[in-house]
Amino acid sequence: YDGGAEEPFTIAFQDSLPLHDYFALIDDHFALRKHLEELRSDLADRTHQYRVIQKRLLVRFKDRNPSPLSHLDTLLALTYEQTIQLTDAIDDVERALRTVSCHLAAATELVLLLIRYRFGLDEENFQALRLHLSPDLCDTVDQGWEEKVDTALMHLLRTSLARSAKDRATLPPPMKVPQDTLKLKKRLTNVVDRLANGGRICGDTTASGGGGEYAEEDEEQAAGQD
């Protein structure tokens, strides 16, 4: 020991980011969202059908000379059973979605930390990235985590992490529920790639245009699919 000052404590991560496993969680979360949406649509159809059958039965019961039921009572009972089954299925999917949402939130926190230590982000850049790749999952009927994060990452790629004036001049499309998670995963990969090439959200925002180890597809091609 020579009495000199000790080196400051630092945390580093040198391995590749586990994006493949993270993307699998995103796919699971999105698949449950889509399944829940389909079940709710089916439930709306069944409840509408139930009300229509009820009205027809009431009309026949009030008629002085009622016509045969033509198995409307059987159809009413069957529709009721299907409605109960759908509500049970919705409860199951909602519970599964809450569980997967917790897993995705935890995985997002982990990925954010690994990105920070892998590329040496300071506190300001880390917090800015955390605002765009948010670990706070709050899905609603109209908006979900995937489209909100996708829009936020697209904003990054066209502002702070843009590679050219052409990227900055491109107008973002309106937010909508995507058909799949391909664009989200491509944009997240491109954000990681530009951070790996020295790009920063705050401060020095010069992003290298070269393809890094995480690059899967040029962002201009992804933007052209919007």
UniProtKB/TrEMBL annotation:
BP GO terms, sorted: cilium assembly
Region of interest called Disordered, as start-end residue ranges on this chain: 201-226
Pfam family of the protein (one): PTHB1_CtH
Amino acid composition bias (Acidic residues), ranges on this chain: 214-226
Residue ranges of every copy of the PTHB1 hairpin domain listed in the record: 16-118
Highest rank taxon of the organism: Eukaryota
Signal sequence interval, chain numbering: none
Cellular component annotations (GO), alphabetically ordered: BBSome; membrane
Domain PTHB1 C-terminal helix bundle: 121-195
Protein name, entry field: PTHB1 C-terminal domain-containing protein
Record lineage: Eukaryota, Sar, Alveolata, Dinophyceae, Suessiales
